[in-house]
């Protein structure tokens, strides 16, 4: 007898539909599986066999063929176990799903028949809704995650036996409640008041947060670069529901979404030994990297000049487009990575800088160290903040302005940008045509033209200065970009500490 079951497999951070076809017929006992299954899917044969027997069902001693359609799509992960087991029970006439149709399912089976959590259930629930599935069977641990999607009845399962009870009308499953998406403002955590002194750095952080701009901090060790970066999420505005759902979808696909849901904007800080594939995504099949995990949040690269050159250069396109394309033999993925890049670097190998009399680095060594950050990548960074060591009086002095006060101004500036550009957009995402529509005072235009010629700015740097000036004007509540806002934007692009 032939039976089918609907399930899904992860494809990057999205879900692709899979039709499980199981045929049970006479012949020597065998269980074969076709349809480009990976190792985890092929091993489902032993898990399904033990789960069926340990749940009180009979495993048919016949010729069993399981086909995973479409045959051209590679199937990965243990999430197909539940659908294979259910289709096998239907094909052997031990289960009737007529009362549950149309239904889809996803889950990993333990040897005792219990259903274990799998990654990517949020994406699976969204794909099920798009295909008109009315009921989705998932592990109970993933129930709150799947409940975030409206239009699909979610059933949380603890064991394979509950599928038979549900199909026979003997069990009424509880309705899972959607998990928290973390759209509220951050509560207790690191506060920007901990950053003493560093007035220029505090302002650079505020401008970067207000416009979603990338930031590079250059200064000696212990000046507060890492401390400032870790406080940046505390001054960012709360996520919109669509942003929170995107963050949850990415975390779910990577198996990082816990039962408590998302907790504010992501903050990723990979070690400098990370590979290009780990930073922007890769592998076979291609999977997301740190850039995608930091989407709608902050990607902090500490000790920037210690990172591999090819890993840093891989960030060029994501910084421009907000997407990363990963191509492998027979596979191509387009992954979102709309993140704020925040980087920290020392001016030279010893960290003191050539202007410090105690610097022991040879000029050539300092040049080689700084050359690890290419000009092309530096040109794509909006804010370049050179900082100095704070004085003893600043360190022992009163705390600075709190994160809550700075966040109010940042949120107000973001609201002005959304009113002008659209929901969820900020100045860092402005297109060239939108930039040309900016209201620019004559003095500001003259200053920008003079700086463009004198400092030999690139066309990209010209546009980034204009975006920064627009953000400075939004923080000041001005509709027109004046000379003062343009001067501040140009100052935020300087690498020197003057």
How is this fold's topology laid out?
Elements: E1 2-11, E2 14-25, E3 30-34, H1 39-42, H2 44-54, E4 63-69, H3 81-91, E5 103-105, E6 108-109, E7 115-116, H4 121-130, E8 135-139, H5 143-146, E9 153-157, H6 161-167, H7 199-211, E10 215-218, H8 225-231, H9 241-253, E11 267-268, H10 276-280, H11 290-293, E12 298-301, H12 309-313, H13 316-321, E13 323-328, E14 331-336, E15 340-345, H14 363-370, H15 375-378, E16 383-386, H16 392-396, H17 403-421, H18 432-436, H19 442-454, H20 459-476, H21 483-491
Parallel strand pairs: 3-4, 5-8, 8-9, 10-15, 10-16, 11-12, 12-15
Antiparallel strand pairs: 1-2, 2-4, 6-7, 13-14
Key terms:
elongated; 3 domains; 498 residues; Ribosomal Protein S5, domain 2; single chain; Rossmann fold; 21 helices; 16 strands; 36% helix; Helicase, Ruva Protein, domain 3; alpha/beta
Give a short summary of the structure.
The chain has 498 residues and is of the alpha/beta class.
Task: Write up this protein.
- This protein is an alpha/beta fold and 498 residues long.
- The chain has 3 domains: 2-167, Ribosomal Protein S5, domain 2; 192-403, 3-Layer(aba) Sandwich (Rossmann fold); 430-498, Helicase, Ruva Protein, domain 3 (Orthogonal Bundle), CATH 1.10.8.
- Helices cover 36% and strands 17% of the residues.
- It has 21 helices and 16 strands.
- The chain has helices spanning 39-42, 44-54, 81-91, 121-130, 143-146, 161-167, 199-211, 225-231, 241-253, 276-280, 290-293, 309-313, 316-321, 363-370, 375-378, 392-396, 403-421, 432-436, 442-454, 459-476, 483-491, and strands at residues 2-11, 14-25, 30-34, 63-69, 103-105, 108-109, 115-116, 135-139, 153-157, 215-218, 267-268, 298-301, 323-328, 331-336, 340-345, 383-386.
- The strands form 5 sheets. Strands 11-12-15-10-16 form a 5-stranded parallel β-sheet. Strands 1-2-4-3 form a 4-stranded mixed β-sheet. A 3-stranded parallel β-sheet has the order 5-8-9, covered by helices on one side.
- Strand 1 and strand 2 form a beta hairpin.
- Helix 7 (199-211) packs across helix 20 and helix 20 packs across helix 21 (483-491).
- The chain starts with a strand and ends in a 7-residue tail after the last helix.
- The mean pLDDT is 89.
